[in-house]
Amino acid sequence: MNGEQQELFFDLLTKKAIYGLDDAEQRQLDLIDPGNGEDELFSLEMTAAAISMIDLPAEHSMPSHLAAKIEESSEKWVGETSWPPVYKETEENRSTGWFGWLGWGAAVAACAVLAFNIYTTRLQPPPQVAGPIPVESPKVLTPAEQREQLLASATGVIQANWSAGNVKDLKEVSGDVVWSDAKQVGYMRFRGLPVNDKTKETYQLWIFDKTQDKATPIDGGTFDVASNGEVIIPIDAKLKALEPGMFAITIEKPGGVVVSKREKIAALATVESKTS
Description:
This protein has seven helices and nine strands, in the order H-H-H-H-H-H-H-E-E-E-E-E-E-E-E-E. The protein has helices at 3-18, 23-32, 38-52, 64-77, 91-96, 98-123, 143-153; strands at 157-161, 163-164, 174-180, 185-191, 202-209, 218-223, 231-234, 244-252, 265-270. The strands form two sheets. The protein has a five-stranded antiparallel sheet, with no helix packed on it. It has a four-stranded antiparallel sheet with strand order 1-3-4-7, with helices on one face.
């Protein structure tokens, strides 16, 4: 029996003594020890079971199958005398001499080592399972921060200032629009654009691109203004704008229109140059 088989043998033996084996485990034990010498193994089972149960709480009782086996074998092993049996020299044990007792001593030592391994294993804390490494969510930038990032990181950004359109009551509109042809991203910044009643009207951006017919500018998306003061709105171009020359804000019905009559132009911004 090699070292690996011996380790498995004692593991199965201990489990058999304490818990019992299922059919597959019993077959495995029989393969290692085909004779399965019950008489020779009984003391090993008792020693391993007794030592491994030393630190169990009092409410844990001996397994029923182990108690039955002890009772069944008690007459053979103990008889009417107390345990351990008193050694008496006879013709039979005189012939075997110390070798028989050395064999049992080795068996007891092996059980002690096995019991120590069981005891220390039970005292070890359960393995710690590493949880997932927390991943920080990327910071969500505000439209103002996105605008500044675009101006700082991109080249060839168009920037134009807003001026009043043809609506008489909207003469104080100011701010600017920035746009990147390369990234197809842009932002509108307004000051003085009044809060609108979105149940009655909405603002809509139009991009007059040099590659597009002036009669059909690119729809840049609709938006509402919910507060006074400075507001920044991302551009939502429905088509690719390659060379914008002018931007216009019109006032339309809720939801916007496909083609604007440009009756109410709230603001205009003409492109004069690009940033390098």
